[in-house]
Write a structure and sequence with these properties.
The structure is a single chain. By secondary structure, the protein is an all-alpha fold. The protein has a domain of about 160 residues: Orthogonal Bundle (Tetracycline Repressor, domain 2), CATH 1.10.357.140. It is built from 13 helices and no strands. Helix 4 runs antiparallel to helix 10 and helix 8 runs antiparallel to helix 9. The N and C termini lie far apart (about 60 Å).
């Protein structure tokens, strides 16, 4: 196999949604919830790694038309990977992730359902006739759920804890994640317009989004204060 082809496959799951950072955060969330068994942590890490690889590669496959105009360094527009090869790669990562989600379900069936939900959202995120990423806030919500909410839920279910257990830090982190992904949307405005997506930077404009995101820490502080008052 040529080096350029290897590079193409390695770059296929590349995205603003980091293939290294996302699984690492998901694993950290699992550790914070209380998962400590090495075998379970290994299964969870590789599940989040493969589910992220599927989410990114399938998204890049569905966005190949716009990427050809706005992201010429991506492997499909460069011609390093054909559409057929991209479909096979994406299907392979999905198949491997499904297998690991079955292993997760053997530890706790509700945790398995949460893992399957994660894969379903990863598919619907870019699937043309549904394309969840075209809707304001839904795009960021799915991505933050993938990194934070679902790992939190899966870990709690494996340990037999109630899902609301220890949710206080989740709300501000969820809002922070939404703010980060909204900022990232600014860099992809042209591509989103081509695909017909309605992200907040397109609807409200870059200036208003900048002001709103800058005020996020203040809003998070207010929410944390309210959560403490309810404890």
């Amino acid at each position: 196999m040529k080096k350029s082809k290897i590079y193409g496959f390695l770059a296929l799951p590349r995205s603003y949604f980091s293939l290294t950072t996302s699984p690492a955060i998901a694993l950290l969330v699992s550790l914070m919830v209380g998962i400590s068994e090495p075998a379970t942590l290994t299964i969870l890490y590789f599940f989040y790694l493969l589910s992220t690889a599927f989410l990114n590669s399938y998204n890049n496959l569905m966005d190949a038309r716009s990427d050809a105009l706005t992201k010429d360094r991506f492997p499909i527009p460069l011609g390093l990977v054909t559409l057929r090869e991209a479909y096979l790669f994406s299907a392979s990562t999905l198949t491997a992730a499904v297998f690991l989600s079955i292993l997760i379900s053997q530890k706790n069936y509700l945790a398995g359902y949460a893992a399957f939900t994660d894969l379903a959202l990863a598919f619907l995120y870019s699937f043309p006739s549904i394309r969840l990423k075209r809707f304001p806030l839904v795009k960021g919500g799915v991505l933050v759920a993938h990194t934070l909410i679902i790992p939190f839920t899966v870990a709690n279910q494996i340990l037999g804890k109630s899902p609301p257990h220890g949710t206080n830090p989740i709300v501000p982190l969820f809002l922070l994640g939404l703010a980060v992904h909204t900022l990232q949307d600014i860099g992809d405005i042209e591509g989103d317009k081509i695909m017909g997506d309605k992200t907040l930077p397109i609807i409200l404009g870059v200036k208003k989004i900048g002001v709103a995101v800058a005020d996020t820490p203040h809003n998070i502080g207010w929410i944390v204060g309210c959560l403490r008052c309810t404890v």
